[in-house]
């Protein structure tokens, strides 16, 4: 048997699932239980013949049926994944093969695909016993070979992961045998192997172990206590070895199912039989109850045929002497019609177009009943008086379709009642409702309210004045009922009719575009057309006669009551004058305009129109833009409007990458007194153009003339990833979609480039004849119109290692290598000379030390700036240090970037080759011997002189003993301490008992400011004592701590340490 790890097991399941898919019409997958959420189950898009992106476009989804959703579809990869943890034992319990069925719906084609997922078992459960301890009573006169039943262990796993064997702890009296049953269960039995003697040992303690066959093996144990009894030579005996009974699932609690009976011929307590369940599963223990004295089996829970159809239990009869026997009880649950059918609408539409052809699908629904047999057979129907019918498709799926054309103008919506009825007795049924709206189709043309119209207008009318309106109605809805008006083309006195009359396309109001003259013509006839906005649009016409009048001629008649009556007439000519009572009205409530980026400056791109029903100056409209800002600039610097015509102009060239849209308000004023105005919102959307070339991020273009080289080993297999070209495009949408292609290659067919990824891979295996240097030109192109592209040249070296590449370099590279080696040699020689000079200075400092004064033998720290050293360090940024093995001073050359250097007071008047004098440094200042001040020229990092390996120290506060005061140097300026104070610091190393003190801080007095510079005096003393140093120590503080310690005497010396 091959043992596989968890990862290997998963791969095996996927492989087996693939094999099962190849030979099945239904889609089948395999997945192990207890997998994490998002575990890959199968490639649904591949099995359905779809691309992953088509899943969302075509509405592919899993039909739930109202149960817990265990699986989900990954919209990116098109794969079926787990939606949560899957427990096979919870779903299928002890069934060896666990299958889950689901349906996948393709929404746009309304096709259903069956999917079967097999849940593979893993060894996630250990065998367990229900009993915490087992007690077996055995007669002391029991014959050898007697068998005593032991409790069965339960393992919810199946196959090799289930219970395989039992073990018994070693003992001299009992052995273990396992007896198989017809149902495959393994029943352990305790076999008596040795004679028992209660007086010798009254009880035996054993341990029963149950093991499964998983990897690793899991086990469970239960302690067994064997009690030895006095002689009880009769075992209870059941009247039947197996009790079988069938019960309906609707039995009420407390109903007796059957009665078991066992007899024992013994007398007294040994003949009293007590009944109990053995090895009963938890589900059965909650349903059935056993009377221990009468043997009656009662119902204490509710039976459900749809959950559990069969129960197998073991009943034990035990007498008072401890002898027992068992019998099986088999209970079969009979189904009754207690579940109503369930209707699940998997897909539906709430609207259908009128005049749709018969057979149009309205909804897809699933009908099921959890009962079985005739109780689970379901029929579905709808009322007969509706223009719909049900057709059965796949399994229990029905589709609701139309059986004739619909008319929205007659019935605008339908409330469809779906009824599902089973075949049980009595039958049960379920109803659900679908509300369906009938969408409008443009099947009704607009209809004018009158068959013809007559209008009257005064001559000398103001131009642009409205004088009449027509109205047409459309029985359709929404855009199909939106009516627009127009005038039929015609001519009047040789001029087009549109130069005399215009009509508002939305309101049907007619306007006079000129001032009519009654003497020129009295009337005119035209046709008005009403169009709806349907597809295709429908229209109707009506005739309009316009009669011209100059004014109102009112005739007044006065009549008396005489006989005959006499009368007189008089006429009043009334002209109607206009009042500014109508504000300008825009033709639309809001406007949207579109403009391409990179537009020419000053170009017009949109216009707005406002109409005023007044006349003359009251109807003269002017346009303006509301003041606003855009990205900190006034809106008037971007957009302008012609005040007379309402035409908008772009004052600048817009850039889609800068902003996508802008919103503004347009105001229309008339010229009346007082003037009236109205506003309208205008949204301007900038449309993207392909004006940005793809930008290559990697490999970056060289700035120093060098060329990057990618390495491809000769052992690379086809498909080996050499490098990847990364590019971006500042445009958006399709203009930013990039594709990669190999434009040119020194070896065609050797490399390939991913169309969408830009990955450069080997197309075939590399051969010895392939050149070392390969040049590839990769083009990156967007999908704009026209497309823009950029190219990059890649250098690929075909070699297994860098030496192989160097072995094939040209002569120029060889010259560069020789030049680098020569420069390195010169650098090494310079370092050696510099070290020699430093050693010479150290030797001279020893001579000065021997000829000392009152501080003879006390080292004085001196800090100088070395121009040549600083130049050297600034070039190479190295640190050079001498360890304490020289028994002399320590000189540390730290990294550059330090501008100030300490010099002694008297060095201001002397000049040595390595000293920076006053004249050699501009602006450094002078030393003042009377003021005990020296100029700080350089502050360098502190180096630990106490360890064998020089390292940098963090600055600490300097301490001295005997009430003396150390010196703390400030940036660019240091103060010299008195001779006695410096002597106290120098002698601190030889102070009695000082070396053993840690953290000594007595008599500390520090001058200066800043963060502090220097370090603890006790550390300094212990370092000197530990190293046995007799020379001067030079300490260079860190660059961020500019204070440095010097002695007063060092102000009069000029030595380099």
Automatic annotation (TrEMBL):
Domain of life of the organism encoding this protein: Eukaryota
Membrane disposition: Single-pass type I membrane protein
Keywords in alphabetical order: Calcium, Cell adhesion, Cell membrane, Glycoprotein, Membrane, Repeat, Signal, Transmembrane, Transmembrane helix
SUPFAM superfamilies, per the entry: Cadherin-like
GO terms of biological process kind: homophilic cell adhesion via plasma membrane adhesion molecules
One term under GO cellular component: plasma membrane
One function term, GO molecular function aspect: calcium ion binding
Residues covered by the Cadherin domain: 71-129, 130-238, 239-343, 344-448, 449-586, 587-696, 713-800
Cell compartment(s), UniProt: Cell membrane
Regions crossing the membrane: 812-837
Its job: Potential calcium-dependent cell-adhesion protein. May be involved in the establishment and maintenance of specific neuronal connections in the brain.
Record-given protein name: Cadherin domain-containing protein
Organism from which the protein derives: Bos mutus grunniens
């Amino acid at each position: 048997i091959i043992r596989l790890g968890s990862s290997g097991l998963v791969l095996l399941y996927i492989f087996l699932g693939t094999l099962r898919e190849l030979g099945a019409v239904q889609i089948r997958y395999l997945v192990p239980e207890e997998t994490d959420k998002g575990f890959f189950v199968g490639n649904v898009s591949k099995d359905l013949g779809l691309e992953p992106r088509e899943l969302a476009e075509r509405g592919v989804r899993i039909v739930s049926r109202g149960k817990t959703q265990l699986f989900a579809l990954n919209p990116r990869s098109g794969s079926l994944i787990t939606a949560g943890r899957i427990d096979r034992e919870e779903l299928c319990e002890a069934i060896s093969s666990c299958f889950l069925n689901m349906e996948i719906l393709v929404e746009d084609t309304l096709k259903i695909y069956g999917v079967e997922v097999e849940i593979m078992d893993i060894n996630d459960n250990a065998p367990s016993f229900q009993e915490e301890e087992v007690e077996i009573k055995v007669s002391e006169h029991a014959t050898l070979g007697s068998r005593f039943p032991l409790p069965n262990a339960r393992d919810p796993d199946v196959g090799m992961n289930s219970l395989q064997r039992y073990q018994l702890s070693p003992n001299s009296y009992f052995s273990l045998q396992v007896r198989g049953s017809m149902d495959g269960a393994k029943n352990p039995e305790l076999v008596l192997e040795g004679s028992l003697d209660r007086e010798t040992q009254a009880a035996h303690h054993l341990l029963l172990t149950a093991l499964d066959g998983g990897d690793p093996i899991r086990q469970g144990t239960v302690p067994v206590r064997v009690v030895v009894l006095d002689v009880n030579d009769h075992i209870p005996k059941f009247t039947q070895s197996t009790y079988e009974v069938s019960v309906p699932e609707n039995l009420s609690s407390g109903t007796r199912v059957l009665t078991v009976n066992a007899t024992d011929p013994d007398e007294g307590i040994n003949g009293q039989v007590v009944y109990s369940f053995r090895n009963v599963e938890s589900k059965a223990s909650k349903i059935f109850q056993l009377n221990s004295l009468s043997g009656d089996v009662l119902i204490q829970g509710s039976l459900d045929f749809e959950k559990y159809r069969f129960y197998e239990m073991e009943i034990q009869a035990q007498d008072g002497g401890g002898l027992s026997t068992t019998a099986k009880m088999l209970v079969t649950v009979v189904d009754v019609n207690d579940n109503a059918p369930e209707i699940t609408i998997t897909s539906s539409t709430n609207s259908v177009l009128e005049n749709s052809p018969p057979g149009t699908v309205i909804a897809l629904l699933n009908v099921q009943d959890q009962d079985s047999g005739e109780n689970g057979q379901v029929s579905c129907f709808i009322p007969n008086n509706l223009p719909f019918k049900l057709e059965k498709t796949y399994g229990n799926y029905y589709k609701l379709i139309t059986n004739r054309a619909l008319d929205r103008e007659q019935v605008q919506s339908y409330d469809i009642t779906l009824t599902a009825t089973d075949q049980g007795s009595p039958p049960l049924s379920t109803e659900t409702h679908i509300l369906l709206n009938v969408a409008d189709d443009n099947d009704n043309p607009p209809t004018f309210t009158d068959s013809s119209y007559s209008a009257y207008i005064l001559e000398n009318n103001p131009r642009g004045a409205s004088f009449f309106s027509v109205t047409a109605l459309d029985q359709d809805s929404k855009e199909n009922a939106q009516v627009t008006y127009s005038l039929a083309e015609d001519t009047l006195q040789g001029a087009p009719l549109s130069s005399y009359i215009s009509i508002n396309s939305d309101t049907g109001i007619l306007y006079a575009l000129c001032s009519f003259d009654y003497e020129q013509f009295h009337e005119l006839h035209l046709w008005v057309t009403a169009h709806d906005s349907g597809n295709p649009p429908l229209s109707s016409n009506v005739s309009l006669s316009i009669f011209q009048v100059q004014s109102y001629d009112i005739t007044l008649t006065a009549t008396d009551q005489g006989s005959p009556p006499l009368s007189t007439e008089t006429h009043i000519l009334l002209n109607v004058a206009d009042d500014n009572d109508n504000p300008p009205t825009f033709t639309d409530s809001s406007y949207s305009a579109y403009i391409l980026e990179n537009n020419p400056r000053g170009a017009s791109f949109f216009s707005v129109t406002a109409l005023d029903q007044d006349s003359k100056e009251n109807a003269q409209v002017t346009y303006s833009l509301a003041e606003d800002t855009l990205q900190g600039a006034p809106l008037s610097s971007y957009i302008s409007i012609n005040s007379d015509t309402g035409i908008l102009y772009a004052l600048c060239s817009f850039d889609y990458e800068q902003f996508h849209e802008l919103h503004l308000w347009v105001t229309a004023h008339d010229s009346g007194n007082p003037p009236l105005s109205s506003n309208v919102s205008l949204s301007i959307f900038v449309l993207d153009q392909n004006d940005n070339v793809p930008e290559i991020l990697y490999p970056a273009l060289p700035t120093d003339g060098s060329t990057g080289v990618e390495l491809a080993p000769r052992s690379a297999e086809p498909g080996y990833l050499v490098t990847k070209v990364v590019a971006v495009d500042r445009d958006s949408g399709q203009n930013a979609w990039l594709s990669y292609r190999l434009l040119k290659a020194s070896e065609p067919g050797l490399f390939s480039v991913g169309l969408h990824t830009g990955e450069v891979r080997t197309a075939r295996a590399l051969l010895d004849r392939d050149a070392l240097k390969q040049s590839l030109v990769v083009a990156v192109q967007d999908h704009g119109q026209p497309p823009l592209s950029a190219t990059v040249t890649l250098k690929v070296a075909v070699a297994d290692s860098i030496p192989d590449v160097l072995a094939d370099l040209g002569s120029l590279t060889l010259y560069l290598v020789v030049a680098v080696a020569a420069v390195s040699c010169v650098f090494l020689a310079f370092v050696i000379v510099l070290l020699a000079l430093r050693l010479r200075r150290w030797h001279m400092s020893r001579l000065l030390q021997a000829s000392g004064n009152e501080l003879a033998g006390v080292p004085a720290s001196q800090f100088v700036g070395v121009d040549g050293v600083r130049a050297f360090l600034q070039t190479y940024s190295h640190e050079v240090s001498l360890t304490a093995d020289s028994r002399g001073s320590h000189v540390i050359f730290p990294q550059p970037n330090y501008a100030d250097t300490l010099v002694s007071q008297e060095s201001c008047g002397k000049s040595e080759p390595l000293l920076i004098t006053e004249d050699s440094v501009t602006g450094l200042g002078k030393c003042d011997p009377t003021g005990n001040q020296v100029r700080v020229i350089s502050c360098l990092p502190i180096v630990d002189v106490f360890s064998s390996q020089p390292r940098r120290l963090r600055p600490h506060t300097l301490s001295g003993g005997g009430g003396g005061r150390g010196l703390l140097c400030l940036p660019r300026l240091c103060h010299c301490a008195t001779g006695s104070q410096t002597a106290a610091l120098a002698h601190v190393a030889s102070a009695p008992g000082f070396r053993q003190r840690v953290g000594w801080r007595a008599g500390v007095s520090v001058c200066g400011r800043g963060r502090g510079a220097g370090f603890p005096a006790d550390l300094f003393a212990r370092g000197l004592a530990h190293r046995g140093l007799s020379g001067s120590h030079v300490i260079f503080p860190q660059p961020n701590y500019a204070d440095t310690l010097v002695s007063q005497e060092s102000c009069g010396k000029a030595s380099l340490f």
